[in-house]
Fold these 2 entries.
Entry 1:
Amino acid sequence: MRLYNTLTKTESEIVFPTKKNLNLFVCGPTVYDDPHLGNARVYLTFDTLVRFWRSQGKKIFYLQNITDIDDKIIAKAREENATPKAIAQRYLRAYQKNMRSLGVISVDRYALATKYIKDIKRQIETLIAKGHAYKIENDGWYFDLKTFSDYGQLAGRTVEQAEDGTSRIDASDQKRNRGDFCLWKFKRDGEPSWRANFGDGRPGWHIEDTAISEHHLGQQYDLHGGGVDLTFPHHEAEIAQQESASGKKPFVRHWAHIGLVNVDGKKMSKSLKNFITINEYLGKNSADALRLLFLQHDYRHTINLTAGSFTDAEKAILGIKNFLRKLDFVASVAKNTTTPPDTARIKENFAEEYLRHLENGFQTPAAIASVFKLIGSYEPIIWRLNKSEAREVKKMLNEKLAWLGFEPTGDKIPRAVLKIAARRDTLRNHQQFMHSDALRKELEGLGYTIEDTPLGSFISKATS
Ligand SMILES: [Zn+2]
């Protein structure tokens, strides 16, 4: 399996250890608000990648941290007159509920930062002892970037360029270098804090990740993932911390970053009010459609959501479901003893293409396109298949879709709708076409289409 590596800027083979797990760490959320579709994209993509690998017999340990203590949580707690702990718990539950609804099931372990204070303190002590950290009175402990010459390797920035960065960098006019980041913030009134030999306080944003990953995965591991917006400064800071603490390079062999989600060409943001939370999305749309929408785009590139994005994705999912229902129908009523020639070739081509696209850089858009190509090849011959062929195609397609986390069971057609369809069949059998046409129109009005096939009438939810 080849995958783009942000560290080397090339696609390279993912090396799965023999007998051991591949260790994967993905930056989880800061739990201070309802997660949005940008967050959903990161977690759905890694869920899909891990499900795919597991379907191929690979062993992965997937670890995700949860930032449950942070400036943002404290600010939100002040706003709502609640404790930071209560805020963190509320939004952790919201996050977990959203992930369940989206079918994100592949994380083995969620690690809450506040449960790893001991590991965090130990790592900071090491950095202090090795001369990588310095203290600013009444403020905290900072990492000295001048002590780590490799800073900027991941994002392709030099220390000077890094110092020009303005994104989520700790502010203090007493820092040695502008890009220096906080490892530990000293205790302040009304804020949670923990005891420490080097001064009571709470962890900075970056240190929890490396303390948690060292605890579970060791000082070096296989794969680190996250949103592309975390590349700098967050992931650079992780590399600086862990490589300085351990003296071992590289901290992580392979880095994978997921692109952003824009709305009408603009970055999702609260100030623009174009923010779509997962809850808002799921209020009107399905989890399968979101997964499909994301996988129809190269995971590394920005997705631009427009007015039609969600309905197009729902239609595409419905197209797959209707195809699977047709196969079911054929499998239950077909009397054909033969099946059209060449179907073996269609299936082989599909299976080969689908796997090749996924293994070659995780090209999910091409893999999804091959699903629709398969459907397109079968549509013209579907009513001529025999039972076993219909069953076989359905089984294969379901299995391949499950690799990417889809479990599209056919939407049940409501009984009332089936009754109308049955009445229409009877009328047609009695040549009462005017009456049967009226029932067809009624069905269309309800959002269904009815197809008169050589095997009888087939009803499905309309895709347009
Ligand atoms: Zn992180």
Note: The first strand starts at residue 2 and ends at 5.
Entry 2:
Amino acid sequence: MVNSQGPIPRGELVPSGIVGLLGTQGPTSRTDIARALGLSPATVTQVTKDLITRGLVEELQSVPSKGGRPARLLGLVTDAGVAMGAKVTADHVAIVTVELDGTVRSSAAHDYDPGADDAIARLGQILAKEVAELDDRLLGVGVGVPGSVDSQASGIVDAPTLSWQAAPVGPVLRAAIGTPVLVDNDVNTLAAAERLYGIGRDHSAFLVVTIGRGIGCGIVVDGGIYRGANGGAGEIGHIPTEHDGPDQPPCTCGSTGCLEAYIGAAGIIRTARARQVIGPRGDLATLLRAATTGDAAARQVFDQAGAMLGRALAGVIHTIDPEVVVLMGEGVDGWELWQTGFEPSFRRSLLPARRAVPVVVEPWTEDQWARGAASLVLASPFDSTGNGGEQSRLVRARLGAQ
Ligand SMILES: [Zn+2]
């Protein structure tokens, strides 16, 4: 039996693995817990007895079972803990608080200038104020940033779009907040959420591709997020697409001709303005309106963006060989406009054996980035690969399931 949550939990990870499973899958019988986590029935009986005694897990109603006596379901006492998630952008910080089962309990947004001299300290103040309004059930804070992060547990960030270089986000926030803090690339946090609550429950190799301000990719292989040697895996927005040179559009990374420079929000607007499809002050909303009301030139801008994404993504499929691709981000609101260019270009560029790879488009909500960040904390019970290191261990200790 494949355990969709990744490797089978062993030793100290068994109790929190069971808590995590109940949090992500809802009420489950002991038999199904044993099957899902690859544990012996005796281990599950013993560990769940202890979790019930400690008030983390409760016995729920019985459900009829074929032939045997009714199976008792076990459920999580969801108010046993909450996690906070924060997504840092170029102009604001979005924050959510979520229950152990991933339900969003509250959300907030704060104006924020990442380019300020005291930007990291200021982020610490914003989060400390939010944390102070919670009670002591907070398990930890997850932070998503548009850049690369050395490790979730350390949290040193390189993010050109925020003007951050080797920014000590993890250490400063831990000192300011006094709780475990896990930091990762924002698209990786969406992949972490999908791994717990979405497509990752049925697939162990998948891509989360985001379109919007930037173009990003979270890579899940063998049930775990693939981060690369420096936490920089999945930066598909910087795939060199056209020849390098001063006649190509500049990218936020300092290079020219990157995929994102063409089909990130700013690139699409630049193209539309240059072709006079929209005026010099026209924005993405103007262009979307024109395209949805049938303006052929506006539709062509999205069509070409879709085709460019399709060719680039085919290369990523050939490299990673995922079972499925999940498409997310602010840009999916206009996906039907991208799709006319994307589908033929993507399928034609794929090897025949990969041509049928499914692309699932997920509806997008504003709080999804911050919820993804919170799932770094909620994934700690399953952290058998050690991504979260000491910080995940501290989360498990706070959960009382260790
Ligand atoms: Zn670039």
Note: The chain has three domains: 13-78, 81-192+367-399, 204-322+330-361.
